[in-house]
Specification:
With 307 residues, this protein is mainly alpha-helical. It contains ten helices and six strands, in the order αβααβαβααβαβααβα.
């Protein structure tokens, strides 16, 4: 009897232990599930933040993927931002990239606030692009893309084509120092755009029209600039004119920094011309006839009588 009771108590204890263990395992599992849920929620939250941060970065940067073996950060900066000096900015933003040798497939982040174009970097930008395209550097007041197109291509209508060939530039606001690339298929002349042509489109343009052939450039310089010695400066500003042989109708541009007087050149001054003095033939000497009673004397060797 005692043995049965002892076995029953032992069995009951073992059952209670097993039930307790099962309940404990279930509690632990629930706790683990709770921890896992918290971790998953935290991970998802971090992932959402990461996705939002990536989206923000995408909005802040333009991504250029390197495709050509010759690409450098300077080329990328020049094409996309219009200034090769922005290479330093790109180097700071892309520290893993070698500035002088970008691996094909590398992604370059470019800040949108300095971005000038999203057109892909052309394959021939480093080679044929620079060798075949004529480069015009903006120098003078009054230059516009229409004027540049008119001078180099023969028609101002080609300004749109020049704008397409220079996507980094604002066609309505070019400034001194800008480089305009002109495709060889459009190019009609390689003669640089003269200053006098550009400044015609400025408010302070002034030119004197020659009234007579052979007017002196020093006289024009003296009247309009206050110093005849400025003749050389006028000759430099008017390279298409012969400074030693001006012709009626020639237009002499007077640079604004030299101009002292806008009053018309007086006729007396413009009439001064370089002319050769007339060659006068001396009058013929009158023939002198001897008087009738004047004896004609013979000169020469003395005559000896024959004998």
């Amino acid at each position: 009897m005692k043995t049965r009771s002892r076995n029953l108590i032992t069995t009951s204890c073992i059952g209670l232990i097993i039930i307790g263990m099962c309940w404990g395992c279930a509690g632990v599992e629930q706790k683990l599930d709770g921890w896992q849920a918290t971790i998953r929620e935290k991970l998802n939250f971090d992932k959402s933040e990461a996705d939002a941060s990536a989206k923000d970065r995408q909005n802040e940067y333009f991504i250029h993927t390197c495709r050509w073996s010759w690409e450098t950060l300077a080329y990328v900066a020049e094409w996309y931002t219009g200034d090769a000096k922005n290479e330093k900015i790109l180097a700071e933003i892309n520290p893993a990239v070698k500035p002088q040798k970008i691996a094909v497939g590398s992604e370059i982040r470019i800040p949108v606030d300095i971005l000038k174009t999203q057109e892909p970097l052309p394959k021939n930008y480093s080679g044929e692009y620079r060798q075949n395209f004529y480069q015009h550097t903006v120098h003078w007041p009054g230059e516009t893309l229409s004027l540049i197109a008119s001078w180099y291509t023969g028609t101002s209508k080609n300004w749109r084509k020049l704008a397409a060939a220079n996507p980094r530039l604002n066609p309505n606001r070019i400034k001194s120092g800008d480089i305009i690339y002109i495709p060889p298929s459009l190019l009609k002349t390689r003669v640089p755009l003269p200053q006098k042509v550009a400044v015609k489109y400025t408010s302070d343009y002034f030119a004197y029209t020659v009234k007579r052939d052979n007017e002196k450039l020093e006289d024009i310089a003296g009247w309009y600039t206050g110093n005849p010695a400025n003749r050389k400066l006028l000759a430099k500003a008017n390279p298409d004119l012969n400074p030693d042989q001006l012709r009626a109708g020639d237009e002499v541009y007077i640079p604004g920094n030299l101009l002292k007087n806008r009053e018309p050149l007086p006729i007396s001054e413009s009439a001064r011309a370089v002319s050769k003095p007339a060659v006068q033939t001396p009058p013929a000497e009158p023939e002198v006839k001897p008087a009738p009673d004047e004896k004609i004397k013979l000169f020469g060797p003395k005559q000896f009588p024959q004998g």
